[in-house]
Amino acid sequence: MQSSITVRHAVHYTQSETMTGSALRENFLIEELFSAGGANAVYTHYDRLLLIGVMPDRAAISLGEDMARVVGGEFLLERRELGLINIGGPGIVRTDDAVFEIGFQDALYLGMGTRSISFESADPSAPAKFYINSAPAHAAFPARQIRKAEAIELNLGDGQTSNKRTLYQYIHPDVVESCQLLMGMTRLEPGSVWNTMPAHTHDRRMEAYLYFEVPKDAFVVHLMGRPEATGHLIVRDEQAVISPPWSVHCGAGTSAYAFIWSMAGDNKSFKDMDFVPMGDIR
Q1: Rounded to an integer, what distance in angstroms lies between the CA atom of residue 194 and that of residue 222?
Q2: Which PANTHER family does the record match to this protein (predicted)?
Q3: Annotated binding site: which residue ranges?
Q4: Which residues are annotated binding-site positions for Zn(2+)?
């Protein structure tokens, strides 16, 4: 198994506003999470969120000592919780005492104290792609599989403003209990390209976006930074963006796409947002 773990330190907005485009990418864009037969992880100092991409082929992949070492535990979820959404072929997750069959765009929550976690693809020729987020936890909650049909579905936006989209809430207080992790998915309708508009911030928690189903010859322009001093990232398929609490997180693509959003921080109120008037974006 090939694996990699990198660490991203927190950046003050005054620093980010002096960065070149390549420096913004180095600090806030994760260009490769999925590699065949591998597990790639980024540990960010923003609310200590850990982002992992696992893509098993013929052999199972376990999150072992190297991951535990980064978070300072005997095992990864000693003092953490974990959520994942599968964006690939059917997969299997094995834990201490359970086996979960995770289909396309199904999710799984694992609580603090889960010691053994391994990942498999049901069909190596159509490998699963487990996008995983892990955050610190203070209490243990039961594991729960959430199928796409069980997620809360919200229809948002309008074709007239090019942002008609469907939002799915998977790890959410009305679906499954967690300590602080929130996780879900948004899909843009054909002809719509804008996400998260009007833009907002939430200084009480950070967020991360994994963009996927971005066509090969397309990209997303992701806006970040303080509302009055935005920068941008060019994001390709299956790349992720780390969004600090002080930053807006919105964007537009050259075609429709989907993305997985996740949050960690002080609360689990999805509606706790500080909206930015459109005229204040600079």
Answers
A1: 10
A2: 4-DEOXY-L-THREO-5-HEXOSULOSE-URONATE KETOL-ISOMERASE
A3: 200, 202, 207, 249
A4: 200, 202, 207, 249
